[in-house]
Amino acid sequence: MKKREGQNPVSPESLGGACFWKFLVGGFESPWTKLVKRGTWGLLLLLLWIAPARAEIVDRIVAVVNEEIITLSELDEACLPLFRKYLAGVRDPLEESEIVRKIRRQVLERLIEEKLIAQEVKKYHIEVGEEEVDQFIQNVKAQIGGEEALQEYLKAQGLSLSEYRKRVKEQLKKLKLVQGSLRARIVITEEDLKRYYQKHYLSDQNRLYWLALIVNSSPEKIHEAFKALKGGADFKAVAQKYSELPEGAQGLSFKYEELSPAVKKALAQLKPGEISPPIQVGGKWQIVKILKIENKPAVPFEKVKEKIRQTLFQEELDATFKKWINELKERAFIKVLL
């Protein structure tokens, strides 16, 4: 991964600060996905939470999680990157207050989740060896440009290498817990793989439709054309007389995804050589004749089997992670005081 100008190479600041676990189950490819797909701790370097400098504020408790607390200073420290992003240019005090409230609520939820996970790490005595930390840091160096780039970043954050190693170790403990807790719950069967293959690799979307068309803006004329065709008239001759796109009678090729919903519905009822009744598409009317249907060569199942497995695993992982976190919340004592 290339270092981008103006971004911290190993901080999730651009991803929402301490919203660490939000990105394990988000709508885009999560860092957890990358861990699963590539099998290396190093690709999680962007998730290492390096907290910004704490502002001077009046502190109070905003949440109790079992026997631990989350303070307002901790929360605002985690929210700071989002405050910077979403409050920039806001002048209305009421709007600013509402944005701050929403950000705090969302980030607090993530902090509670991370607190629960940290408690599970202690409960099950999850350990990470120094060699695992070394490997992570080596991967970081490889991806951000070497030792010098890492030292520059640590200096900018006011961190020593030993402090950085401690933070790496704590995050790796959490990731190891999540990995161990969720993997055993996810089972992808051969039938699951074949069902996905059938749906996504052998469906209509892998077909090429060759269609002859008669197109006209007038519903009266298109119905006259259809009546002539039903009476046995030649398709090309009718197209020459009625179509605003005469060349369409020669045949045009369409991918399935290029067809309108109305045309897809009509084609489902037709075989090659048959014609559709008039179909309204936008401001035009069409009569469609299927000339032929070509099936694209299907990718062999064995060639895409592992790719399908990864896709299904990620889908299951997202759902299982949410369920697991909810189970932790249900068993815990949580009181929000925000």
Would you kindly provide a written description of the structure presented here, covering whatever features stand out?
Helices cover 51% and strands 12% of the residues. β5 (279-281) and β6 (284-295) form a beta hairpin. The protein folds into 2 domains: 12-189 and 310-336, Orthogonal Bundle (Triger factor/SurA peptide-binding fold); 207-295, Chitinase A, domain 3, CATH 3.10.50. A 4-stranded antiparallel sheet has the order 4-3-6-5. The radius of gyration is 29 Å and the shape is elongated. The protein has 338 residues and is α+β, with helices and mostly antiparallel strands. It has helices spanning 31-38, 72-87, 93-123, 130-144, 147-157, 161-183, 190-201, 219-230, 235-242, 261-267, 301-331; strands spanning 61-65, 68-71, 207-216, 252-255, 279-281, 284-295, 334-336.
Q: In the CATH hierarchy, what is the architecture of the largest domain at level 2?
A: Orthogonal Bundle
CATH topology of the largest domain, which one? Triger factor/SurA peptide-binding fold
Cα-atom radius of gyration: 29 Å
Mean pLDDT: 81
Measured as a percent range, the helix fraction is: 40-55%
Shape summary: elongated
Query: How many β-strands, per DSSP?
Result: 7
Order of helices and strands: HEEHHHHHHEHHEHEEHE
